[in-house]
Amino acid sequence: MINTIYRLVSPKLIEEVYGEVNLENNVIVRPTHLSICQADQRYFHGNRDPETLAKKLPMALIHEGIGEVIHDETGTFENGDLVVIIPNTPIEDDDIIAENYLRSSNFRASGFDGFMQDYVISDPNRLVKIPNDINREVAAFTELISVSAHSISRFSKLAHKRKNKIGVWGDGNLGYITSLLLKIIFPESKIVVFGKNDEKLNLFTFADDTFKINEIPEDIKIDHAFECVGGRGSQLALDQIIDLIHPEGTISLLGVSEYPVPINTRMVLEKGLLVFGTSRSGRKDFIKTIEIFKEYPRVLKYLENIVNDTIEIKNLEDINIAFEKDFNSSFGKTVLLWNK
Amino acid sequence: MIFVAILAGGTGTRMGNMDKPKQFLLLGDKPIIIHTIEKFLINEKFEEIIVLSPKQWISHTEDLILKYIPNSNKVKVIEGGKLRNDTIMNAINYIDNKPDIKEEDIIVTHDSVRPFITHRIIEENIKYAKEYGACDTVIPATDTIVESTDGNFIKSVPNRENMYQGQTPQSFNIIKLKQLYNNVSEKEKEILTDACKIFSINNEKVFLVQGEVSNIKITYPHDLKVATSILKET
User: Fold this and answer.
1) CA distance B81 to A45
2) I want to staple B196 with a disulfide (CB 3.0 to 4.6 A). Which of A182, B98, B136, B140 is the partner?
3) Is A4's CB within 8 Å of B234's CB?
4) Which helix (H) or strand (E) holds A336?
5) Which InterPro entries does the UniProt entry name for this protein (chain B) (predicted)?
6) d(CA A112, CA A123)
7) Which residues of A touch B44 (CB under 8 A)?
8) Between A and B, how many CB-CB pairs are < 8 A?
9) What is the 3-state secondary structure (H, E, C) of chain B?
10) Omega before A58 within 30 of 0, i.e. cis
11) A9 has a chain B CB within 8 A of its CB
12) Do B180 and B206 contact (CB within 8 A), yes or no?
């Protein structure tokens, strides 16, 4: 069968290309709801170094999305099943190292084509069934939520048991999702969010406290921290975290930065801090995320608040409009209703 | 129920001096017609995929389907007609022999040589054929259309903004199509080059589904070159 793929060929220019696909041993998924990530925006606007762009493009963007199973010759799914597609694609098994950290793993919309296609052709192992009655706009960014869930899983394994107060730095989407999941998973802990913008911080109604980073009371101390800032702000966030954290606390790094970020290692040493990075997610994190959706439906209600815009995509021009609108919005997720 | 008729009735005389019809030519690793059938095979909404083939090519078509499509029990090859509408009516007559055809049932008719059809086009054909009784897939005309009745001089130049180029699928309510076709005189049938015209000359509405420039019809050798080269881009 011939599949149509919508690839970014150069900044802001998307073209259709066509590829032959094999129906055997694959599941054919029709994407229905996609969500734009910062990484997509960096490619779309050409905000990566020229060497990276030359190496990665042309490539179909988008690695957050759900779709409907149209055809499955593997016998794993029923036609009409709603599935979330896992962008991480391992090519080897490892008993110790998680699939999202294996250097050999491929990743959709980074190493190979993302979800902007007429059909996504997938191994059944890269699909996880989700309830058909789920809020599909929220489910569209399950991948981002699973990144938070993954980070919290690692935190659970690595952090000591005193978790009276957990700080989350960053008032963006990742900060919102991470602090929300922390509140659900650790209901006894006080979740404190540190950000820059009053309007955004006002949305964190589930948090026990929120502070602007330049108005932090002197007596605030935290046991553990999550850094969801990224970019140039990472350094300032890490400085504050190292300053406010109790000894032997953990610092979970989630914010992606294009730049090398200096860290006050003297204080990391003196306080005996455990700093660990987390990136992306794997199949078990998706399964865990969907379990959270089922067990705590109010999570979905909170997540509805960060759906900023839903834009129907019927032609290539609509894709450009959606990326520009998303780029100009300061908070929230842009969901693409895929009808191309 | 929803049926699809893959129209492979033509013998491809415009494809140059080739000994086999254009739908059987290879595009990438498979014959064009197989790519086209697969697009409908993966959509479970279709009850049956009826492939209409020239009589002498029926066995060949069946063999190809067996070779390339392992689970092909939904695909049926029958004989096409002399003209396009005869071919469609052969499909209608074949469906008509089934005992449980209902008023809401529709048929999606598609050229076997348009393998680049997209999911949206198929879904919108189903939707609007159900809603309006008939729909046609079109794209806005990019070239100016001129009308000439003698082949020598222009009779008129219609406003391009009102002009569209017809693609396929064309989709219809089965019972309505049959009734309207039976209303048309034998003389009119001879000049009915397009199935949607059966509806329009009966003053019935035909909804326009937005096609795609890429939904090309592989008619001439040049088209096959274009199709082959764009497929190689990945």
Assistant:
1) 53
2) B136
3) no
4) strand A333-338
5) IspD/TarI (IPR034683), IspD/TarI_cytidylyltransf_bact (IPR050088), ISPD_synthase_CS (IPR018294), Nucleotide-diphossugar_trans (IPR029044), TarI (IPR034709)
6) 15
7) 70-71, 79-80
8) 59
9) CEEEEEECCCCCHHHCCCCCCHHHCEECCEEHHHHHHHHHHCCCCEEEEEEEECHHHHHHHHHHHHHHCCCCCCEEEEECCCCHHHHHHHHHHHHHCCCCCCCCCEEEEEECCCCCCCHHHHHHHHHHHHHHCEEEEEEECCCCCCECCCCCCCCECCCHHHCEEEEEEEEEEHHHHHHHHHHCCHHHHHCCCCHHHHHHCCCCCCEEEECCCCCCCCCCHHHHHHHHHHHCCC
10) yes
11) no
12) no
ipTM here: 0.87
Measured distance CA(A158)–CA(B81) in Å, rounded: 73
Chain B environment of A71 (Cβ under 8 Å): 41-44
pLDDT digits (tens, 9 = 90+) for A206-245: 999 999 999 999 999 999 999 999 999 999 999 999 999 9
- Residue B65: partners with Cβ closer than 8 Å, 6 or more residues away: B34, B37, B51, B72, B75, B77
Beta bridge partners of A309: A334
The residue of chain B with its CA nearest to that of A29 is B42
pLDDT in tens, A43-60: 999 999 999 999 999 999
CA distance A2 to B16: 25
A72 reaches B (C-beta below 8 A): no
Residue B192 confidence (pLDDT)? 82
| Averaged pLDDT for residues A35-41 | 96
Q: Encoding tokens for residue A187?
A: 């209901």
Task: Kindly list the structural domains of chain B, giving each domain's residue range(s) and its CATH number in brackets, ordered by start.
Answer: 2-231 (3.90.550.10)
Residue B199 to residue B211: CA distance in whole angstroms: 20
| Chain B residues whose beta carbon lies within 8 Å of the beta carbon of residue A31 | none
Pairwise CB contact (< 8 Å): A30 & B119: yes
Structural domains of chain A, ranges and CATH numbers in brackets: 2-140+306-338 (3.90.180.10), 146-277 (3.40.50.720)
**Prediction pTM value:** 0.92
* Cα distance between residue A279 and residue A256, in whole Å: 9
* pLDDT of B20 strictly over 90: no
Whether residue B118 and residue A24 make contact (CB cut-off 8 A), yes or no, is no
* Averaged pLDDT of chain B: 92
C-alpha separations of A83 from A13, A116, A150 in Å: 29, 16, 19
- Here the tokens at position B23 are 């739908």
